[in-house]
Design brief:
Elements (H helix, E strand, L loop, with lengths): L9 H4 L14 E2 L6 H14 L13 H11 L4 E5 L2 E4 H18 L7 E5 L4 H12 L3 E4 L6 H11 L1 E7 L3 H7 L7 E5 L9 H12 L12 E2 H10 L12 E7 L7 E6 H15 L10 E4 L6 H13 L2 E4 L6 H11 L3 E4 L1 H8 L2 H4 L8 E4 L6 H11 L3 E6 L6 E4 L12 E2 L4 E5 L12 E6 L6 E2 L3 H7 L6 E9 L5 E6 L4 E3 L2 E3 L1 H8 L5 E11 L3 E10 L6 H9 L10 E4 L13 H5 L1
Parallel strand pairs: 1-18, 2-12, 4-5, 4-6, 5-9, 6-7, 7-8, 11-12, 11-13, 13-14, 14-15, 26-27
Antiparallel strand pairs: 2-3, 9-10, 10-20, 15-16, 16-17, 18-19, 19-21, 21-22, 23-24, 25-26
Helix pairs in contact: 3-4, 3-11, 4-5, 4-9, 6-7, 10-11, 13-15
């Protein structure tokens, strides 16, 4: 019997599952019923992999309780580094407490008020973020690359009262702040937490020699070090926090419409850190004293949760301010020799094409994580060939804090997103909302303690994606393999329909990127009078002699006729988000 070939749902067998926050053994269901056979199969799979069925969501009352335990436990260890300076856990504890004290006493904020943070990967981020959370505030992570329109929308929509901005990107904030309700602004320069005279020297070089700080004027703006000094004189008052209290507003959906704030609670964040911890144990990571290299931006939920996991295990997070600056990523690899690396497909490809990177010593690299976009077989195989470390692909969304599933270290399958993390339920639904069978694609729906509380001040939008039983519809098309592993086929909105046949861009891209002259590619659907839609491939090539017909001939070897592109467009690069995800919508437009 197949994993999904059954007739009853767990909800009708177990009344407790009607609670949307109920945590049950991860399960794959069909239609209304899940049989004991399915339950047994998944339980057996997780037991074989050494992954617990569930996590104890009552372990910590808040993400603050979780990281404060780490700050007290690992005081002498290195906590985080950027631009050549490292903070210990004790220093991170002291500085974040000072910022919390200023928020409560100097800024006069109350628990639940929103604090926006707009900066790249710097040690200041963790100081400010942890401080805001310790003071009971809600963190609003803000992309430093935002346009004026995007920034104004987020600051206004979230009702931000205090904003912390890095000087290099403060010009945009200066332009929009008068049109928002932001009351206090704190500006930080790149080396503010370095000791003197290094601090002044680096800040001077960045501002006046490299001219990396565009001129800006924000009336009555405060400097971060002034704020920390004031906070030291007025110790913060510990706040009682509950799992249901809001911790973060993480904005998402900007590429598909108006950006919405996903409401992530303290319980959501704690659950996902514990879920991730359970998975990482299968990779045999030592944890304490190990370095996690983080080039992905901390304002993105993928990198943020990784940083919380790092704190929990006493690891050292080495931050790379700009992942697009490939030499700086290569240098960080050489300097820190990380045990764990967080990346995504485009970054893996770029690094493996870099001669300096290929010459490094990777003997200390134990785990490579991939998320944020689909991992191609070619990129995964090339990474393993260069570094000797396999890539473990996971899957998640902003709305799920973010991890839903992952490939365990002792059961890694390239091309899949692994199995659900503990306490996570999965459904695969067709267009009518019915469950589908093994190897049949459908929309992936998720229920678990990591699923957001909803979209900030948007009940209608929340109701569109979370049903009355707590199931979150991801908008991603997935299927379940007979062995219980999940595989993403594509985004619903990216699916191309050619003469009534569904064509999934990820499949086409995975085939073409294996061509030795193709650096990266993206498939989109374009209108066609004869077939409704047709496939257009956008290709970045390393060999200028690669032709459109050669692309088609190569793809023809692995794809049926209706999936072949009707047109091929060669480009110097492809549009991407700040974390490197290719923007197919921009290519379609």
């Amino acid at each position: 019997m197949g994993l999904l070939d059954s007739v009853a749902t767990l909800r009708e067998v177990d009344p407790a599952a009607r609670d949307p926050h109920h945590t049950q053994t991860p399960c794959i269901t069909r239609d209304k019923v899940m049989t004991e056979t399915v339950h047994t199969a998944i339980t057996a799979r997780l037991a074989e992999l050494g992954i617990p069925n569930r996590i104890d969501t009552d372990s910590y009352s808040s993400i603050v309780a979780l990281f404060e335990e780490a700050l007290a436990t690992y005081r002498a260890e290195a906590a985080c580094s950027s631009v050549g300076h490292t903070l210990s856990y004790a220093e991170l504890d002291r500085l974040s407490a000072q910022f919390a004290g200023w928020l409560q006493h100097g800024a006069g904020l109350d628990s639940g008020d929103r604090v926006a943070i707009q900066m790249p990967n710097l040690i200041q981020y963790l100081v400010v973020c942890l401080g805001a959370l310790r003071a009971g505030m809600v963190v609003v992570n803000t992309n430093p690359l935002y346009t004026e329109r995007e920034l104004e929308h987020q600051l206004t929509d979230a009702g931000v009262r205090v904003m912390v901005v890095q000087a290099n990107v403060a010009q945009t904030a200066a332009a929009v702040l008068p049109r928002t309700g932001v009351e206090r602004v704190v500006v930080t320069e790149i080396a503010d937490l370095h000791p003197q005279p290094k601090r002044s020297l680096i800040n001077f070089l960045v501002k006046y020699v490299k001219k990396m700080v565009p001129p800006f004027h924000i009336p009555e703006a405060l400097k971060l070090n002034e704020v920390l000094k004031a906070g030291a004189a007025t110790p913060f008052q510990a706040v009682t926090l509950a799992p249901s209290d809001l911790a973060m507003l993480q904005y998402t959906g900007g590429t598909t419409g108006v950006a919405k704030g996903a409401m992530l609670t303290h319980g959501n964040l704690v659950a996902n850190v514990l879920q991730s911890d359970a998975f990482f144990k299968t990779h045999d990571m030592e944890g304490r004293g190990q370095t996690i290299l983080q080039p992905l931006p901390m304002y993105h939920i993928y990198a943020f949760t990784a940083s919380m996991y790092a704190l929990r295990i006493g690891a050292h997070t080495a931050l790379v301010p700009n992942p697009r600056d490939l030499p700086s990523v290569v240098k960080a690899f050489a300097d820190y020799r990380p045990a764990l690396f967080c990346g995504l497909n485009t970054l893996f490809v770029a690094l493996c094409n870099n001669a300096a990177f290929r010459s490094l010593d990777f003997s200390n690299l134990q785990v490579t994580l991939s998320g944020g976009m689909a991992l191609t077989h070619d990129a995964a195989n090339r990474w393993q060939e260069v570094t000797g470390c396999r890539v473990s692909e996971g899957y998640g969304l902003t709305e799920t804090s973010p991890t839903v599933s992952g490939n365990p270290g002792n059961g890694l399958q390239i091309g899949t997103i692994g199995v659900p993390v503990p306490s996570t339920e999965i459904q695969i639904r067709d267009a009518e909302g019915n469950g589908v069978s093994v190897d049949e694609p459908g929309e992936l729906c998720v229920r678990g303690p990591q699923v957001m509380a909803g979209y900030w001040q948007r009940p209608e939008a929340t109701a569109e994606v979370i049903d009355s039983e707590g199931w979150f519809a991801t908008g991603d098309i997935a299927l379940v393999q007979p062995d219980g592993y999940l595989r993403i086929v594509d985004r619903k909105k990216d699916m191309i329909v050619v003469s009534g046949f569904n064509v999934y861009p990820n499949e086409l891209e995975d085939v073409l990127v294996a061509h030795p002259d193709v650096v990266e590619c993206a498939a989109v659907g374009i209108p066609s009078e004869s077939t409704g839609e047709a496939v257009r491939m956008f290709v970045v090539r390393s060999n200028p002699e690669l032709t459109e017909s050669a692309v088609r001939d190569f793809m023809r070897e692995g794809l049926t006729g209706y999936k072949l592109p009707k047109s091929v467009v060669f480009k110097d690069d492809l549009p991407k988000t700040a974390v490197g995800k290719i923007l197919r919508r921009e290519l379609r437009d």
